[in-house]
Amino acid sequence: MEKKKHSLTVESRSRTLVTGVEKVIDSSPSVINMTTSEGALTVKGEGLRINAFSVESGELTFEGRVDRIDYHAGKKPLLGRIFK
Fold first, then answer.
1. Is the distance from CB of 16 to CB of 4 less than 8 angstroms?
2. Residue 29 CA to chain centroid, in angstroms?
3. 3-state SS of the chain?
4. What distance lies between CA 11 and its chain's CA centroid?
5. Which residues are bridge partners to 26 per DSSP?
6. What pTM was computed for the model?
7. Rounded to the nearest 10 degrees, how much is the dihedral formed by the CA atoms of 75, 68, 59, 37?
8. pLDDT tens sequence across 21-34
9. Contacts of 14 (CB under 8 A, 6+ apart)
10. What pLDDT band is residue 73 in, cutting at 50, 70 and 90?
11. Spatial contact of 16 and 8, defined as CB atoms under 8 Å apart
């Protein structure tokens, strides 16, 4: 299976397009957590509201003021942690 290309476009801190989204974990007006082809991504802000999400294309659009964007490193596979 081919990995979807990931990108993040923020327009005026109020409109955002994220590509390569595999899953939306949770969302609220202050935080959106998702998994992308490049790892876990958290967006924090105010008035965040998801407009559209397509599992097929991996595109997520949302509105609201973006204050912070954090990528989280995933855990190495179990064998990678055992055999360093």
1. no
2. 15
3. CCCCCCEEEEECCCEEEEECEEEEEEECCCEEEEEECCEEEEEEEEEEEEEEEECCCCEEEEEEEEEEEEEECCCCCHHHHHCC
4. 16
5. 33
6. 0.83
7. -20
8. 999 999 999 999 99
9. 63, 64, 65, 66
10. confident
11. yes
